[in-house]
């Protein structure tokens, strides 16, 4: 494996990694640590031959999972490391070489992404210790959404809160939405038209894409706004929070924990934030699991319908992320609310699409409906390599080699 890039993608309860080769299509080392922080935490590894191994990591943190991943790289060593960083604020609008100033700036945005940026920083710190001197690059979720028009990113609050404190909508899951948008431009005859992409996992967001650019998205200043998620509430009446503070004596910490850790699928079901388990429990008659699925799908459909207003023309929808790629039930249930948009789902195509495969699930008329497995790691590797190549080109232009006469 020549000149690979190691990509670290720390989510709120997971940690994905991939060692991406320089030549597209070559096999990659990859894996994911799931359910981190719980007694069921596991690490799934995939070697270059495609063989899979599972390691139990009960109670493991992001840092502990990362150490186990790096221990399993063997003799494969990267030339650089690309990190997914969730929130870049207004400073970071593109991939950035990491130094101590960048680390400090990422740390200062932790309050905007309390479930993610601390995990991202753990990955950066651990790899800096294990690979001192190796170039490390941050690729920010928020960067892809810098194309939002002002009427989409501004909140209806006094202007000075934006001008002085940067309070605005930023959007997230940028690497995933950018990758899927690029795949749609290749796969569909509609090309770089009007699409809505639903990235559904423990974190979930939907984005309206026009001509390859994000023009509106469901997440806001933080990854808390928008859709129902694993443990996050998504949209909620802010008056509820004022009620809890003034009438029930809740602190800001209590509310933070409620909205980010105890709500969403977990809060609705009273069981779990894992959609796989919820689908099984709902099938067995558990009322809370059924309610969680119903609310999740309805709120997703409502968001898709709203985002369609941002597009001059809507050509289709795409599902991605762990739930979007692997749950025919969630796709079908969501699309039942969208028949007025011209949705015609093929039950056979939807139910029979193999896991990990991209494909269309419509009947061939109306809106195109796609399932496209995301490749955030591949996108981050490309961004990392481009940044390093541009740096090399800049240095070469400053110090051109002498050409013999």
Task: Please outline the major beta sheet.
Answer: 8 strands, mixed
Structural class of the helices, strands and pairings?
Answer: alpha/beta
Q: What is the count of DSSP helices, taking H or I runs of 4+ residues?
A: 15
The helical percent reads: 25-40%
CA distance, first residue to last residue: 39 Å
Number of strands: 14
**How big a fraction of the residues is strand?**
15-25%
Task: Return Rg in Å.
Answer: 21 Å
Form type: globular
Listing every helix as H and every strand as E from the N terminus to the C terminus, the arrangement reads EEEEEHEEHHEHHHEEEHHHHHEHHHEEH
| Sheet with most strands: strand arrangement | 5-4-3-2-1-6-8-7
Low-confidence stretches: 400-405
Average the pLDDT over all residues and give the rounded result. Answer: 92
Describe this structure in words.
With 405 residues, the chain is of the alpha/beta class. Helices cover 39% and strands 18% of the residues. It has 15 helices and 14 strands. The strands form two sheets. Strands 5-4-3-2-1-6-8-7 form an eight-stranded mixed beta sheet, sandwiched between helices. A six-stranded mixed beta sheet has the order 11-10-9-12-14-13, with helices on both faces. Helix 1 runs parallel beside helix 3 and helix 10 packs across helix 11. The longest helix is centred in the C-terminal third of the chain and has 23 residues. The protein is globular, with a radius of gyration of 21 Å. The C terminus is likely disordered.
């Amino acid at each position: 494996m020549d000149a690979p890039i190691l990509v670290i993608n720390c989510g709120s309860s997971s940690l994905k990694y991939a060692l991406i080769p320089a030549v597209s299509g070559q096999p990659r080392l990859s894996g994911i640590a799931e359910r981190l922080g719980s007694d069921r935490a596991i690490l799934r590894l995939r070697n270059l031959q495609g063989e899979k191994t599972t390691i139990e990591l009960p109670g493991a943190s992001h840092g502990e999972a990362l150490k186990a991943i790096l221990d399993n790289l063997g003799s494969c060593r990267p030339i650089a490391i690309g990190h997914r960083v969730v929130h870049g604020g207004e400073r970071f609008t593109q991939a950035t070489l990491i130094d101590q100033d960048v680390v400090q700036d990422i740390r200062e945005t932790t309050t905007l992404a309390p479930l993610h940026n601390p995990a991202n920083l753990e990955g950066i710190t651990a790899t800096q210790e294990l690979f001192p001197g190796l170039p490390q690059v941050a690729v920010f979720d928020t960067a892809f959404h810098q194309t939002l028009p002002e009427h989409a990113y501004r909140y209806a609050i006094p202007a000075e809160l934006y001008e002085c404190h940067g309070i605005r909508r930023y959007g997230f899951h940028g690497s995933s939405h950018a990758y899927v948008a690029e795949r749609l431009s290749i796969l569909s005859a509609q090309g770089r038209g009007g699409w809505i992409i639903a990235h559904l996992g423990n974190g979930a967001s939907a984005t309206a894409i026009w001509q390859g650019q994000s023009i509106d998205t469901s997440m806001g200043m933080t990854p808390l706004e928008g859709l129902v998620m694993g443990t996050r509430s998504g949209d909620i009446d802010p008056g509820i929070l004022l009620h809890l503070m003034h009438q029930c004596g809740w602190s800001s910490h209590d509310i933070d924990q409620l909205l980010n850790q105890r709500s969403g699928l977990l809060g609705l079901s009273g069981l779990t934030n894992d959609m796989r388990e919820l689908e099984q429990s709902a099938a067995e008659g558990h009322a809370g699991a059924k309610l969680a699925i119903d609310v999740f799908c309805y709120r997703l459909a409502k968001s898709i319908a709203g985002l369609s207003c941002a597009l001059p023309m809507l050509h289709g929808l795409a599902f991605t992320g762990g739930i979007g790629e692997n749950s025919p039930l969630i796709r079908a249930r969501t699309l039942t609310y969208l028949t007025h948009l011209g949705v015609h789902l093929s039950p056979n195509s939807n139910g029979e699409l193999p896991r990990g495969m991209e494909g269309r699930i419509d009947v061939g008329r109306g809106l195109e409906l796609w399932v496209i497995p995301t490749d955030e790691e591949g996108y981050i590797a490309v961004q990392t390599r481009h940044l390093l190549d541009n740096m090399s080109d800049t240095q070469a232009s400053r110090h051109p080699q002498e050409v013999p006469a």
